[in-house]
């Protein structure tokens, strides 16, 4: 019933998309269902020009060809997905759909619980022979909305690093260039979405793990305000961790948020329902928004092409009527990188406590090294870092009270070679500060999204990060939507 990446998903043999019926503005018809967005698929279903079964079969067939080259999906469960797609097809025919994403295929990161699927956390140490009897809240909400959950996407072990590779799964590659990383830890999700292996994906973000792959893969990834999307079981990364959508368009992100942004009794930190319609909020005005542009978060290297593309994106916001100015946040003199590092390593060391010593040799050596480093910190070190975290968060609160939006790069570099933890600087030393931005908003809990803002000369995507005050997820998505409409990234069929 379940198939590994290189095997043929059941029900996919000989499947082709329906013939091209032409495209016109306002009529999102496509000859290749694997490249359609969720919104486009819903329009096709509504008009009877395609069905959920056709869409799923097209994606399964593409996965058979493409996934062995990418290693984006580690589990494909075709038979139940085809049953779900068939049920959705009947609902569309009767006009009894459950939501705007009824029948749309979605993949789930392997750190997120799916009923019946082994949730191995990318680890050889986790026992696969467990009941696996419950869905995580986001997965449950997607099922209730009629979405077709068909695959599990790869992650590094326990999401501990910013590239997607593990002793259990191997290396996940970037569809834009197979010799480059897709980022992490939701690298499988990012690669799957941009490669046409499902238009919707659930990722998790403990220090940038949705936004990093979104930047490297040229898609949209949204880290919600902490607690806006309920999560269970709790992450080893504590209250740094978030669950959120990864898609090709901001509209699809909003469609997913309408479904998954709900409380759940299993998550005591989940926020009360706010009844926001994120799709309707996309069309709100951005004119006269006050926007602060910050190109660097301290003394770190910024790739010139990345800086130039983000500065160009800021000028697009000016053309949209925003008031944009370069700004300098006052973060109270604390070091966000140090604060995050202490929190992260202390959380990662919990993994050592979860397994008996004889299983530690099964862990990824990089996770093992991080965990052992985390064990060196005292409770006083962590309490001091928690106090500095509050100072940092207050600094960003003040910044985002003065500005409606913060614009900055998602990452300081484009995607680098697979097999590395970090790119090299000009002198050949590792650039350990290639990701200096995203973790700030895991610490501060602000909503933050990455949207593609162009390609480097070598054809690699670059992400623009948009952040707003607490609970202003709709504003982040609205700004990203207007920007994406003004400066769309034309993505070829990937991998080429």
Please render the helix and strand layout as text.
Elements: E1 2-3, H1 38-47, H2 52-70, E2 73-77, H3 78-94, E3 105-109, H4 137-144, E4 148-153, E5 165-166, E6 170-171, E7 173-174, E8 177-181, H5 187-194, E9 200-205, H6 211-217, E10 220-223, E11 242-247, H7 250-260, H8 278-281, E12 290-293, H9 304-319, E13 323-326, H10 336-348, H11 350-354, H12 365-374, H13 379-402, E14 405-409, H14 439-444, E15 448-455, E16 461-467, H15 473-486
Parallel strand pairs: 3-4, 3-9, 12-13, 12-14
Antiparallel strand pairs: 1-2, 2-4, 5-6, 7-8, 9-11, 10-11, 10-15, 14-16, 15-16
Describe, in plain words, how this protein is organized in 3D.
By secondary structure, the protein is of the alpha+beta class. The chain folds into two domains: 251 residues, Alpha-Beta Complex (Amidase signature (AS) enzymes), CATH 3.90.1300.10; 182 residues, Alpha-Beta Complex (Amidase signature (AS) enzymes), CATH 3.90.1300. The chain is 35% helix and 15% strand. The chain is built from 15 helices and 16 strands. The protein has a twelve-stranded mixed β-sheet. A two-stranded antiparallel sheet has the order 5-6. The chain has a two-stranded antiparallel ribbon with strand order 7-8. A hairpin with a 3-residue loop joins strand 5 and strand 6. It is globular and about 60 Å long.
């Amino acid at each position: 019933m379940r198939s590994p990446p290189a095997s043929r998903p059941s029900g996919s043999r000989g499947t082709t998309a329906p013939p091209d019926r032409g495209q016109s503005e306002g009529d999102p018809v496509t000859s290749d269902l694997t490249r359609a967005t969720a919104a486009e698929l819903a329009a096709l279903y509504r008009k009877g020009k395609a069905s959920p079964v056709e869409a799923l079969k097209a994606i399964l067939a593409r996965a058979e060809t493409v996934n062995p080259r990418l290693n984006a999906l580690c589990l494909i469960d075709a038979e139940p997905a085809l049953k779900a797609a068939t049920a959705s097809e009947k609902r569309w025919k009767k006009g009894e759909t459950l939501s705007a994403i009824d029948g749309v295929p979605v993949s789930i990161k392997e750190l997120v619980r799916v009923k019946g699927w082994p949730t191995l956390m990318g680890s050889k140490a986790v026992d696969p022979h467990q009941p696996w009897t419950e869905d995580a809240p986001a997965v449950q909400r997607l099922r209730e909305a009629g979405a077709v959950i068909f695959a599990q996407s790869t992650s590094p072990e326990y999401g501990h690093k910013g590239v997607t590779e593990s002793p259990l799964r191997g290396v996940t590659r970037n569809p834009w260039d197979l010799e480059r990383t897709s980022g992490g830890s939701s690298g499988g999700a990012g690669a799957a979405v941009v490669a046409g292996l499902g238009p919707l994906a659930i990722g998790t973000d403990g220090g940038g793990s949705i936004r990093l792959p979104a930047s490297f893969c040229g898609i949209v990834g949204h880290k919600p305000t902490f607690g806006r999307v309920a999560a269970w079981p709790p992450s080893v990364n504590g209250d740094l961790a978030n669950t959120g959508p990864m898609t090709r368009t901001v509209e699809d992100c909003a469609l997913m948020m309408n479904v998954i942004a709900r409380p759940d009794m299993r998550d005591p930190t989940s926020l009360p329902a706010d009844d926001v319609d994120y799709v309707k909020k996309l069309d709100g005005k951005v004119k006269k928004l006050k926007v602060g542009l910050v190109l660097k978060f301290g003394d770190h290297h910024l790739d010139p092409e990345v800086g130039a593309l983000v500065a160009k994106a800021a000028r697009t916001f000016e053309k949209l009527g925003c008031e944009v100015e370069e700004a300098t946040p006052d973060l109270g003199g604390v070091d966000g990188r140090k604060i995050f590092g202490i929190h992260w390593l202390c959380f990662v060391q919990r993994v050592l406590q979860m397994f008996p010593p004889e299983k530690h040799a099964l862990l990824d050596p990089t996770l093992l090294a991080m965990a052992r480093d985390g064990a060196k910190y005292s409770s006083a070190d962590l309490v001091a870092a928690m106090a500095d975290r509050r100072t940092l968060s207050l600094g960003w609160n003040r910044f985002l009270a003065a500005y409606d939006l913060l614009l900055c790069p998602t990452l300081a570099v484009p995607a680098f070679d697979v097999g590395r933890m970090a790119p090299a600087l000009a002198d050949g030393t590792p650039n350990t500060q290639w990701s200096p931005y995203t973790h700030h908003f895991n610490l501060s809990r602000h909503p933050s999204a990455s949207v593609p803002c162009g390609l480097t000369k070598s054809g690699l995507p670059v992400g623009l990060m948009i952040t707003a005050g607490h609970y202003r997820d709709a504003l982040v998505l609205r700004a990203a939507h207007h920007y994406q409409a003004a400066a769309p990234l034309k993505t070829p069929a990937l991998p080429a």
